[in-house]
Amino acid sequence: MDSTDRLKLARFLGDAATAVPGVVGLRGGRSGEVTEYGPGGRVSGVAVATAAERLQVTVSIAARYSPDLDLARLADRVRRAVQHEADERIPDTVDRVDVVVADLVTQEATP
Amino acid sequence: MNILNRVLVILFTLLVIATSALVLAVTVGLVAPQGLPLPLLADVLEPFAELQSQSQIVAIAVAAGLLVLALVVLIAELMLPARNKKFTIKKDDLGRVTVSENGLRRLVDREAALVPGVMEARSELSESKQGLRVKSRVSVDPGSDAAQLTDQVRDRIKGALERHLGQVAEVAVEAQIEPFDRKKRRRVR
Hints:
The structure holds two protein chains of two kinds. Chain A has helices spanning 3-18, 71-89, and strands at 23-26, 35-38, 41-44, 46-51, 54-64, 94-105. By secondary structure, chain A is α+β, with helices and mostly antiparallel strands. Chain A has a single domain (3-109), classed as Cation efflux protein, cytoplasmic domain (Alpha-Beta Plaits, 2-Layer Sandwich), CATH 3.30.70.1350. In chain A, helix 1 (3-18) packs across helix 2 (71-89). The longest helix of chain A has 19 residues, at 71-89. Chain B folds into two domains: 3-79, no CATH class; 86-176, 2-Layer Sandwich (Alpha-Beta Plaits). In chain B, 51% of the residues lie in helices and 22% in strands. In chain B, strand 3 (118-128) and strand 4 form a beta hairpin. The A-B interface holds A 29-33, 35, 37, 47, 56-57, 63, 65, 67, 69-72, 75-76, 79, 83, 96-104, 106 and B 1-3, 5-6, 80-81, 83-84, 86, 89-90, 93-100, 102-103, 106-107, 110-111, 114, 163-164.
C-alpha cells in the first residue's frame, strides 16, 4: 500500500472514528505524532503503519466529557467502528487498532 | 511531524553543519584540503581554498549563515517538548487503549469540580512504581467545610480513576479558599 492509498484510508478511518457518539474530533498531537502524511495532504489524528504486509492503525481522539463517561467503552466503540470501516475497504489487512484519548472536551466547549 | 521525519531532519541538519563547517574551515585557511582523509573531499573543497577577496567573503558568509541556520534547526528539533505521556486503559488482541496525560488531567479536574462547593481544580499527575499519583489543588467556596470537601474530592477522583484505569497509588488533595491566580501580580511602587 503506497502513501496515497494510506492517506485515503486514513481519511475514511478518521471519519468512522468521529462518527462514534462521544467523539468530538481527532487530535494529531502537538508535534503531529499521530498524523498520516501523503501526497496532497495529511490526516491529523490517524496514523497507518505497515508491518509485514499488515496494517496497524492508531486513532487519537478528543472525547466529550460527561460524569458517566466510560473511556474503555468509548474506545472499544471507536476500535470496532474503525476496524469495521477498514474491513469494508481492505478486508483482513488491519491487524490492530490502537486508540489514544488525547483530550477531553466539556459540553460547553463543544461547538 | 512524526518520528521518521524528525530523524530525517536531524540527519540533514547534521550533514549541513558538517559540510558548512568544512567549507568555512577550508575557506579561512584553518584546514588544508590536501590534509583531509578522503581524496574526493579534498577535490571538492580545493576551489574554496583558492578563493580570493570578494569571493572568499561571500563563501564565508554563506557557509557561516548555513551553519547557524542548521544549528538553530537542530537545537529546535532536539528541544521540542517530550511526547505527552500516556496511561494504558486496556490492552488486548484488538489493540491498545491509552489516555494522554493531558486528557487524564482534564478528567481529574472535571471530576473534582463536580463536588458541590468546589469552584475550580488544578491537578498534577505523576507515575511511580506503585502506580499513578495525583496531586490536586482545589479552590473551594468560602462558606464550605474545606476538610470535608477535601475528602469528598479525593474519593471522587479515586473512584473515577479506578473506574477508568483500574489502579491508583495515591490521590492527594489540597483545598484553598481563595480563587486561583489568573494573572501575574503587578508590582506596585
